[in-house]
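pasting BED-type domain-containing protein for the record, 615 residues
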Amino acid sequence: MATSSNEAQPAKRQRLEDDDKESICWKYFEVPKEYGAITKCTIPGCTKQYKWCGSTSNLVGHLKTKHDITKDSIHITSTNDSEPEANLVGHLKTKHEIINSSIPLTLTGSFKSEICLRLIGIIVSFGEFSIVDNLPTSNIIKEQINKAYNNSFLQLKSKAQQEKTTIISVNKIIIADKSYVIITCCWLTENFEFHKILLLAKEWYSHTNKNEDIYGDIIKALEKWKLTNVKFYIYDNISYVDFFGRLYYRDKQKYRNLIPNVLKRRKNREKDYFNDLEYLIHSSLEKWTRENVNTQGMYDTIKVIRNAVIEIYNVVNFLKNKDVQQEIENMKKKQMFSDSTINDIRNAEEIRTCSKSRCTYHNIAFLKLMEEPFIQLVSNNRNAFIREQVIREQGKRYRELMLDSLPFSIFSIFSILLHVFKPLKHKTCSCDTVISTEEYMDLVDEIVFNADNMLRNLPSNNDLEYKIIKSLLISIPSYNGLLIEQLALFLDHHSKPDEISGVIKKCARKNSQAHYLKNICSDNLYKSIDAANNELEYYIKRPPLPLDCNINSYKWWEGSKHMLPGLAALARECLPTLTTDRDDSIKILDKPLKLDDKDMAEKIAFLQYNNVIQY
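structre below
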């Protein structure tokens, strides 16, 4: 007999070759090399081992009592003793009667164990998810699910990262009275091939559930994909809650690094307004940062500038602190400032009355006027004499942020931003910042021309500061998520030009112009304007399609991208927004998401949606 290694029982000597070589135990136990050797159960999670004494009775008994495996339960065997999972098929057939040879099963992707992925497909198709939890060898299936998930995740992540722009869509769906958050990513390739993948399918837990952190989980999921090429984040307000607003307050720093610019889809076409002027500078800097993420020698500096502007509200509040103000007054009495600096401080006092304290433009203007007091206040020798430790620590942090971390003065960048965005001076602090779309477009026109004029007058140089300033001026956006769906409808080749508003055409022209300016006309504004005008005119006057023509927009633009490069670039970014909320594939997730093991549920849903497993 085989005896337990922790039991001292006498055993009869029997020859190994006399044992039943067809015994089921050798499919689940290591074959001992010699008499007296230790044989271990190979079923994942089981640690039982026996000393081989010539008989399989204890081994067979262990399989029956501990794992519910008998000779009669195995109908399909494998010649490969190293892969006991192959016999799971027979076990499933006997115990659950769900395998039918007439069911067409296909497998896509290269993975080590096809049999387990076929089992996953069967499990999904029949909704028998208790099998995953109850099978004695369920760990083998879970191991293969994890392998399949990790493999396909890396492949899809690399594929999405290589595209110029992607769109992430966040939606909340209800399946069997349960709410789920579904996050997908889609894009059009250079050849206008449409791709869409599932990033996350997760049960939406109520904010009252203290054991779950849905927003934290979503942040982690998006961080995991590391997509720096996201053009739009499309979402609907979930239960009248600003979804990304919740994420922002959940973790501001991670939100800023992860989601540089949320561009809401404006579904209500009856409203014609734009009230995001206060964030136009921020969105411009985020766009600038995103476009230079792979630029060697510049990205780190650009990120510091962006972070300094993000932090500017807190810096201004620091300078408005009563103790800090008293310290500045003391410096004035000691005649540490010139007359011009004292005049700047006086003018800064007027800006302090700005009705909107979070107005980025006026906060930059305030800090620019307070440049000299700020530098004096946070300098190493001065900071040491400040009594309040909190103020001393804040001063040290702001010095590191705005002075020590850049090879040139941050205040030169502030001067550029104030000049370029000067049209905002009398807009963002007015009582009514809700303006029409056309007014917004005119405002952006002024900003773009300011940037171009400054670019033309910029002394040519090869140092880092010149390169930074030039890249900033070139990246000034011509729109900020404005009328995205309307633009997409305009770029649908079935659209009728006479039904498109002048505002949409103007917006399309501005984006086409930006493409020419950056990629074709070598920063020549006037050439880019002419090219964009000609392109738009050609598109509007294009001949109507034949009645029997059923070519889709993607194929049409693939054939027109060389003739209309500016609009084609815009179409590649905008057209996928028309399909983000029309997704029949989501319906197939109802079965895998019912699995009690939430981790397995999310991974099986991922594999099924992304066609790693099919049935």
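Confidence is low (pLDDT under 50) at residues 3-21, 73-115, 265-274.
The chain has four domains: 3-73, 79-265+583-615, 279-436, 483-578.
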